[in-house]
Amino acid sequence: MKAIRILAAALALGAGPALADDDLMRVEAQGDVPAVMDALVAAVEGAGATIFARVDHAGGAEGAGLDLAPSQLLIFGNPKLGTPAMQANPEAGLFLPLKVLVYEADGKTWLVYQDPEEMLDDLDGIDDDAEYVAKMTGALKRLTSKAAGS
After folding, report:
1. Tally of CB atoms within 10 A around 109
2. What residue stretches are annotated with the DUF302 domain (predicted)?
3. Which of 1, 35, 102, 127 falls 20 to 30 Å from 45 in CA-CA distance?
């Protein structure tokens, strides 16, 4: 019973969020969600990465009879960047390939992604200073900046 009270208190205090706010990198974009996502797709393809999926969350919600502001997720990667992380720790595959969400909120369009250093931080064998972490970070910054029109 005591464990249940402790768990309830922890949940009430908001303990254990899935992602800390500082783990997420946000970039304000010019244009609507489809246009920004198209620009992101073009940037990713131009960089030679592979696009695995483009998920239309709002379209899925609409199909279920629900309303959701425009929101799309791009799942993409480059084996030259991701494979070394998975060689260091196969559990990196939980976080890879990379993902960028493009969504609308309060009349603005945003790109958001998880910082690779923070994303892989808790995995044994992954060094925050690893070259592949720096390359993932740089690629996400460049790709989202280009898609944002900045």
Report:
1. 23
2. 55-116
3. 127
Residue with structure tokens 């390939």? 97
> Which positions ≥6 away from 60 have C-beta within 8 Å?
none
Domain count, the chain: 1
Query: Does 8 map to a domain?
Result: no
pTM over 0.85: no
41 is written with which tokens?
């797709």
10 located within any domain: no
For residue 83, what are its two tokens? 């494979």
Q: Which domain holds residue 121?
A: 18-148
Token pair, residue 144, equals 């989202």
Q: Give, as one character, the DSSP assignment of residue 13.
A: T
- pLDDT value at position 27? 97
User: Per residue in 82-114, pLDDT tens?
Assistant: 999 999 999 999 999 999 999 999 999 999 999
Which CATH number covers residue 50?
3.30.310.70
